[in-house]
C-alpha cells in the first residue's frame, strides 16, 4: 500500500478527515497512524515532507515569478522606508508642538473649533444664497 493510499484509508477521527482532497495535510495529521502501524520510519516521513517542501518551492519560484517577486520586494522596501520617514517626521512635529507651551493643546483645540464653526457658517451662508436665487422675483407687484 502506498503512502497516499494509506493516508486516504485512515479510519481514525483526526482533523485530517476535514481535508479529504489534500494529501499533504492528511500526511501531516495521519503520522500517528503510520507510527502505530509501523509502516514508515520517522526518517522516511521527514524525507517525504522535505521532498514536498522542495517541490512546492520549485513550483513557486519560476523564471517568471522571480522577477515579479523582486519588483514586489523593492516596492515593499521603498514603501516601508517612506512610511518610516513619515512616521519620524510626525514624531518630530509632535515633540516640537509639545515643547512649545503647556497651553498649546488648548489653544490648538480652540482654533480647530473656531475653524469648524466658520466652515459651518460659510456653508449656511452659501445655502441661504442658493435658496434666495431659487425664489421667484416679486418686484413686479
Automatic annotation (TrEMBL):
A single Pfam family, by name? HAUS4
Per its UniProt entry, which superkingdom is the organism in? Eukaryota
Q: Supply one GO BP term.
A: spindle assembly
Official protein name in the record: AUGMIN subunit 4-like
Supply the source organism for this entry.
Arachis duranensis (Wild peanut)
- What does the record give under GO molecular function? microtubule minus-end binding
Q: What is the lineage of its organism?
A: Eukaryota, Viridiplantae, Streptophyta, Embryophyta, Tracheophyta
Cited InterPro entries: HAUS4
Q: Cellular component per GO?
A: HAUS complex
Amino acid at each position: 500500500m502506498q503512502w497516499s493510499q494509506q493516508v486516504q484509508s485512515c479510519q481514525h477521527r483526526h482533523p485530517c478527515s476535514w481535508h479529504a482532497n489534500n494529501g499533504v495535510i492528511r500526511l501531516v495529521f495521519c503520522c500517528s497512524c503510520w507510527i502505530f502501524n509501523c509502516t514508515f520510519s520517522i526518517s522516511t516521513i521527514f524525507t517525504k515532507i522535505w521532498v514536498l517542501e522542495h517541490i512546492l518551492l520549485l513550483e513557486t519560484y519560476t523564471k517568471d515569478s522571480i522577477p515579479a517577486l523582486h519588483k514586489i520586494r523593492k516596492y515593499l522596501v521603498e514603501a516601508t522606508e517612506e512610511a518610516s520617514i513619515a512616521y519620524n517626521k510626525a514624531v518630530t512635529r509632535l515633540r516640537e508642538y509639545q515643547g512649545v507651551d503647556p497651553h498649546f493643546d488648548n489653544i490648538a483645540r480652540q482654533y480647530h473649533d473656531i475653524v469648524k464653526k466658520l466652515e459651518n457658517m460659510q456653508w449656511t451662508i452659501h445655502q441661504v444664497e442658493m435658496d434666495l436665487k431659487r425664489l421667484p422675483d416679486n418686484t413686479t407687484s
